[in-house]
Amino acid sequence: MEVRAATPDDQEAVMEIAERSLEASYTLSPQTIEGTVHQWYDEAEYTEKVDREDMLFLLAEHEGEAVAFTETVIHDDETGADLLWLHVHPDYRGEGIGSDLFDAVRDRLHDRDITQLRGRVLSMNEVGNTFYKQRGFEKVGEGEVEIDGSPYTEALYLEAEPEGLEPRTTDDGQTVYIDHDDVDEGSAGPFHVVYVDEAREEKYGYHCGKCDSLANAMDAMGRIECGECGNSRKPTRWDAAYM
């Protein structure tokens, strides 16, 4: 996969990706999606966006074909930015393209000494919200975006401050370390990876943030389930279906 800055010549590809992505991710009417895509990415609007100094518009290509893009606006003080949209064509989801493109956005921002990234995703998009939570972001509020003339609620996410390792003594007297920076979102609370050493070289298991218990195992599909309270994490293959 190659990531590059979008150009005016990519306008038709961007419209196609946005339309297909919205169809796959949201329960919006075809008329609403079509109107929104034309409102945001018609030739004049799109060209203005890719030429703006305060806009980071990245395009991902797979074997020469445009398959995903991000739209990020940089704050006036140039210390932070808002990731407005991350769209992956449905035919290319599940290959890690969205995650790689997200990382590319952060790298480009860091190159410009922009360290704070705020994510915006429609509240109705469950998988999109999970995407941010699994990357250590916390919901900090809500906003509103207009789509084809109607208001929709957005969830706002900021990267949580690192909490580091928390030592914990098991029932058999062993000291293990809960990594609060390595979080997986569960059905009723977060899961944290637990290590047997401070160097994070050997895993012990998982810590359930719902009931504060240890030793939750992961099966071959990547599913985690707490034996104490039933908190569970869906298989990783399900997570990969979006990004």
TrEMBL record:
It holds the Pfam family Acetyltransf_10. GO terms for molecular function: acyltransferase activity, transferring groups other than amino-acyl groups. One of its GO terms (cellular component) is ribosome. InterPro entries: Acyl_CoA_acyltransferase, Bact_Acetyltransf, DUF5816, GNAT_dom. The keyword S-adenosyl-L-methionine does not apply. Keywords: Acyltransferase, Ribonucleoprotein, Ribosomal protein, Transferase. SUPFAM superfamilies: Acyl-CoA N-acyltransferases (Nat) (SSF55729). CDD domains: NAT_SF. It comes from the Archaea. PANTHER family: ACETYLTRANSFERASE, AMINOALKYLPHOSPHONATE N-ACETYLTRANSFERASE-RELATED-RELATED. This is Ribosomal protein S18 acetylase RimI. It comes from Halorientalis persicus.
